[in-house]
Each structure stands twice: as structure tokens, then as C-alpha cells.
Amino acid sequence: MGIDYKIADLALHGAGRHQIRLAEHEMPGLMSLREEFSASKPLAGARIAGSLHMTVQTAVLIETLVALGAQVRWASCNIFSTQDEAAAAVVVGTGTEAEPAGVPVFAWKNESLEEYWWTAEQILTWPGAAEDAELGPNMILDDGGDATMLVHLGAAYEATGTVPGAETAESHEQGIVLGTLRASLAADPGKFTAIAGKILGVSEETTTGVMRLNQMAAAGTLLFPAINVNDSVTKSKFDNKYGIRHSLPDGIMRGTDVLIGGKVVVVCGYGDVGKGAAEAMRGQGARVIVTEIDPICALQAAMDGYQVAALESVLELGDIFVTTTGGKDIITATHMQGMKNKAIVGNVGHFDNEIDMAGLAAIPGVQKVEIKPQVHEWIFGTGTEAARSIIVLSEGRLLNLGNATGHPSFVMSNSFANQVIAQIELYTKAGNGEYSKAVYVLPKILDEKVARLHLSALGVELTELSPAQAGYLGLDVAGPYKAENYRY
Ligand code: NAI
């Protein structure tokens, strides 16, 4: 029997395979983990439900997990982020277009929200699992926490007949999630409780997903162990910063073709992503203004040479506005009405609630014009002398993935090497009780290992500690070289 899947177009697989081949060359971390572990197959028996942007880089991650013995089902964690050719190549795998033999992928660029939650449910719905729970997923690999949330909400729904927040359909999306749960449970009652009982752990990719895990752990509602991949130094200090430094200008340029040099760019948030965003815009010759709520980050921005201001006081100055906070309601409809004509507004924080898109759509008389997919002009005061418009990228969702192709391979090799190591840790150890229902980070020695795997590709010559120097510093020659709380 063939594999089940739903993607845009299987015929794109050849183009996807070429890109994957080139990406492999740029992903030394993942490729050396393949070399180290493909004989011992530490993930044999792992059934991973993966929810992470279905890009070319993710294809290399998926095929690494498979090389290490795992079975995988995959969805994207964003409606716009799938690269359809990558999805096609992963589905075809070592098979052919007529007989695909790869991984079941449920992802395509430009999903509706209903389709998005259907794909999330598909990665948790394994063939045969309705009859035999042993055949369902036993691991989650998540980005932003939607797959983890679906399992938690589903289990809560089965236990209580209600989902906190969703019953009131507080938001359109919550209503859709509830509908997805109801349909899923009608087909297989008790499904989510069974899944939650089998999941050995989740490895979480991003700041926003980690925030959700920490909230559940604090409330005592986390149903399985979690590894916070984001806070590996080789993830957040690289992907969030250097990744965005590459993919933010890429998204703005592909979306608008506007010259960034000389413009005023307002970057909301000066965390890891904000630092990379501000540096990229300055690198293009923009004058960058930062907004922050944290005095430490505000001071850092000032010391790095940026003006730090409240958004309200620079609305009329900014040509481009970028949110990077992971918070909500950062740019409101009122803010957008106060911006200059043709100001560009975009978000690179995980969810679309950083920019109040619902409030924008509700402005009386506002008109939305599609310039091209994922680029929209919103016109205020049509037909009046004061008519003016702003440009919103990717409907307020991650613009670096919606308008471009996300972070490049080399930086994702760092992030995804952490993911693979976290999956091995949880799969091989959580069953023995070495991890409890809490949120962990990987040990520093493994973080250093990930960095080490990427040095030779860049021609880095690492200095070795002498035993005498190591003794003097109180370190092991082989590391770890820093205390757990060192901030880099
Ligand atoms: P972070 O916590 O390091 O930085 C966020 C910053 O925003 C903090 O310094 C915080 O003080 C600030 N902030 C919060 N509310 C604010 C407000 N109202 N106004 C101004 N500043 C405010 O988090 P990080 O790692 O930078 O991640 C930010 C977001 O980006 C998260 O949602 C994360 O999941 C996402 N992310 C997106 C990526 C992409 O490819 N687009 C890659 C990595 C992370």
C-alpha cells in the first residue's frame, strides 16, 4: 500500500531534490549526525509527528530522522511557509512519482486555517492507530507548539467535554481548532488521551513554543517531557539572530523590491530576532529605530547605536515596520492608520497576533488590494483627498517564510542538529524515567558539539586548551567551556 499524503504537486519533486542535494552540502551538522548514527539507528521504533515549516532545510532534517531509524509524518507549522517542491521530494523519497516511497507530508503553500488544522491532525493520525494505539505517534517535533497544543486540548476535551477558551470561540481560529477536535474524535473517540499516554516527549524549536511549554509546566498540565531546543546557544544565538539577518531582508526585497538603504526601519523588540533584524537593516543602509519594553534590551540597543523610541512617537517617521517580539497587539489598527503613505508592515515573530490584522480589516471603508500573493495594500479613506495606503506582508504572518524561503541551510543545520540530538535524548531516555514532565535544555557539552560540527566547513581553526591551562581554569580539555548561566 502506498503512503498517504497531501501536498500541492508531486511533479515538483525533481526540483525539490536538486535543492535538497545542495542544502545537504550546506548542512554539515545534520550530515555528520547521519554518518555517526545511521548504522546504530537510535531512532528505530520512533514514530515522530513533526510540525515545522516544510522547507528544503526541513527536508534534510526529515530525511536525517529517517536515516536514524524513525518513521515520520509531517505538517508545516505555518500556512504560508511550505516550499512545495521540498514537500514533493520528501513524499517521493526513494520511490517515483507513480509510486512515492518517502514520508507522508501534509503541507502546501497557502493553506486555509481549516486546512492547516486538518494537516496538524493528520500528523497525529497514524495508519492503524484507531484499532491499535501502539501504532500511533510516540514523539513530537514541534515549532511554535501547535501539535503539542492539539494533543493537550484533545486530551482535555476528552476528559471534560470542553476546551478552555475554545467553547466560547473567543477567536475564529479557536473555533476551527474545536471543529477539528470534534471531527477527529467522532472518528476515533479517546484518540488524544491515547496519544498523550504514548508520547515520550516533544522537542520544541522556537521561543513562542517554549513559552507555551513553560506555561503548561508551571500549571502542572504538561502531559510529557519536553526539550527546549530554542535555548541551546547554537539555536537561539544563531538561527534567531543570524538566520533573521539573512531572511528578513530577503522577504522584504522579494515582497516589495523597495530599496532599504536610506529608509527608516522600526524594529519592535530587541531580543535575539530583533538584534538580527536591526543589524540586517543597518547593513542595508537603513536608519534603524528600536522599540523595547525590557530596560536591559533597550539599553543594549542604545549601546549598539540605535535610537530607542516608543512606537507612537515614530509612526510618521518609519518607512518599514517589523515586529520581532513573540508578544501580541504590538502594531494596532490605530498605529497603522497613523503611518505614512506606503509604509511597509511585516512580522517575523511566530504568530500573526503581533499585528492586529482583524482590527485593520475592521477599519470603516478600508480596502484590501492584492498586489501579489502574500503582499497586500490596505487603503484608508478611498476616494478622499486624504487617501493613503500601507503594505502588509504575509498577512501579518512570518514574512521571512511567507515572502521568501526562511533561514538558509547552514544556520538551520545548527538548529536541526539540536533537534535530532533532542529527539535521540528523549526517545532513548524518557522511557527509562530519565526525563519527567518538565521542560529541559540539552547539556552544554552537546551544544558545543553542534557548534563543533560546523567549524571545519567555515575553515575555523579552534585553539585547544593545554592541560595546564584547563587545570588553571578548572575545565576539562574536552569541555564544557562555560558555566550553564553564561550568556554569550
Ligand atoms: P526574545 O524573547 O529574545 O525577544 C523578544 C523581545 O521582544 C524581548 O526582548 C522583549 O522584551 C521584547 N518585547 C516584548 N513585548 C514587546 C513590546 N510590546 N514592544 C517592544 N518589545 C517587546 O525572543 P526571540 O528569540 O527574539 O523570538 C521572538 C519571536 O520570533 C518569537 O515569537 C519566536 O518564536 C520567533 N522566531 C521567529 C523566527 C523566524 O524565522 N521568523 C526565528 C526564530 C524565532
TrEMBL record:
InterPro entries: Adenosylhomocyst_ase-like_sf (IPR042172), Adenosylhomocysteinase-like (IPR000043), Ado_hCys_hydrolase_NAD-bd (IPR015878), NAD(P)-bd_dom_sf (IPR036291), S-Ado-L-homoCys_hydrolase_CS (IPR020082). Belongs to the adenosylhomocysteinase family. Residues 240-406 form the S-adenosyl-L-homocysteine hydrolase NAD binding domain. It catalyses: S-adenosyl-L-homocysteine + H2O = L-homocysteine + adenosine. Its main location: cytoplasm. Substrate binds at T55, D143, E205, K235, D239. May play a key role in the regulation of the intracellular concentration of adenosylhomocysteine. PROSITE patterns: ADOHCYASE_1, ADOHCYASE_2. It is an enzyme of class 3 (hydrolase). It comes from Paeniglutamicibacter antarcticus. Its cofactor is NAD(+). It holds the Pfam family AdoHcyase_NAD. This is Adenosylhomocysteinase. It is found in: Cytoplasm.
